[in-house]
Design brief:
Blueprint: E1 44-50, E2 55-61, E3 66-71, E4 78-84, E5 92-94, E6 107-111, E7 114-122, E8 131-139, E9 151-160, E10 166-175, E11 180-184, E12 200-207, E13 214-218, E14 221-233, E15 236-244, E16 252-259, E17 267-273, E18 277-283, E19 287-294, E20 299-307, E21 317-320, E22 329-333, E23 337-342, E24 353-358
Antiparallel strand pairs: 1-2, 1-8, 2-3, 3-4, 4-5, 5-6, 6-7, 7-8, 9-10, 9-16, 10-11, 11-12, 12-13, 13-14, 14-15, 15-16, 17-18, 17-24, 18-19, 19-20, 20-21, 21-22, 22-23, 23-24
Length: about 350
């Protein structure tokens, strides 16, 4: 952060007169400097992890009500204005010609150093330019000290490729001063402590040449490698990764993880889903209600009841116990975020992701 200092005149050197006059008392007063407006603290650049499976940069200017999305490398800028939602305090509309609709579900909300919202991103699997409103999370405070990465993370993810979407639901850990990453690679959802040895994968973590980005390499398979970041959102660590798969051409990924939080408190917030809706979520220890609006202007309400994952599962992860057979969802929480993902195949909701920023 650049800090501007106002230097007062110092008359400590012998033989120098004081500020603003010759010392005779009859000189004209020195005019005061005009006040300089303070820039909005939310202004700046954020790294975006989008559920289309790509990364972007987002620049927000709340003084001019303007935004700019660029690709991860800074290319292909898309700029326009944003406006406030008069009916939803704290929410903003992205103005865009990319995805005309009856209701604008391209919205966002801001917390310290992070943004959660939805935007009409390009569809990377389409043969011609196609734009679809997808949820995203963006952050600008990324951990750069390895020791601060450590923690146990409940991790959700989606994958996208021509053959179909996928869901990932697991618990992971970063340990040994941020140098060791472990992942339970099982269709059954285990905590790291209860993960069978034959499906517990271990990776070595090292910094990359991009500040706040880390590289992991599977100790048993050097071709299994990826990059990730850990953001500080609400004074908590949030694991984030996304982009084109290094190992599998044509596959696009997004991963989001929060530190294991066994006790869930009552909260409310807003967010978007890959189903194309924006809504308010109200959370309790036992379930949540979501009131949404879709792009066609229709509204609906859904209610979920939470169940645990048993004695061998992560304590801070919930399943949606009232979901129809074969249509499961799972949820994770950390006081600032509530994230839902559709169950892995053959679930009817495979590839579904919902990200909510809690007030």
């Amino acid at each position: 952060m650049r800090i501007l200092f106002s230097l007062a005149c110092v008359a400590a050197l012998a033989g120098l007169t004081g500020c603003g006059g010759g010392g005779g008392g009859g000189g004209a007063a020195t005019p005061s400097a005009p006040d300089v407006p303070t820039a909005d603290a939310r202004n700046g650049s954020y790294r975006v992890y989008a559920s289309n499976g790509l990364q972007y940069q987002l620049s927000l200017d709340f003084d001019q009500n303007r935004y700019t999305f660029t690709d991860q490398d800074g290319s292909h800028p898309v700029s326009n204005t944003f406006g406030t939602d008069a009916s939803e305090a704290g929410s903003y509309f992205f103005k865009s010609d990319r995805a005309p609709s009856t209701a604008n579900v391209s919205r966002f909300r801001v917390t310290t150093d992070a943004v959660v919202g939805a935007f009409p991103f390009v569809e990377p699997l389409a043969a011609t330019p196609t734009y679809v409103v997808k949820p995203f999370i963006a952050a600008r405070k990324l951990i750069t000290a390895a020791a601060e990465l450590d923690g146990t993370y409940n991790l959700f993810g989606i994958s996208r490729e021509a053959a179909g979407d996928g869901s990932a639901i697991t618990q992971t850990s970063l340990s040994a001063g941020g140098t060791v990453f472990k992942l339970c690679n099982s269709m059954q959802i285990f905590s790291i402590a209860n993960c069978p040895a034959n499906v517990l994968l271990t990776y070595t973590v090292a910094p990359t040449d991009v500040a706040g980005t880390w590289r992991m390499v599977n100790d048993a398979n050097p071709n299994d490698t990826s990059r990730f970041s850990v953001a500080r959102i609400g004074n908590q660590n949030v694991y984030l990764s996304g982009g084109a798969s290094i190992a599998i051409a044509g596959r696009y990924l997004m991963r989001i993880g929060v530190q294991d939080t066994p006790v869930w408190n009552a909260a409310a917030g807003y967010g978007a889903s890959t189903g194309g809706s924006w809504g308010k979520v109200t959370l309790s220890a036992t379930g949540n209600t979501r009131n949404v609006i879709a792009a066609n202007g229709s509204t609906s309400t859904s209610t979920n009841f939470f169940g645990g994952l048993g004695t061998t599962g992560p304590l801070g992860m919930r399943d949606i116990s009232n979901a129809a057979p074969g249509a499961g969802y799972f949820a994770i929480y950390n006081t600032k975020l509530l994230v839902l993902v559709g169950g892995a195949a053959p679930s009817a909701n495979v590839g579904y992701l919902q990200i909510n920023l809690l007030d």
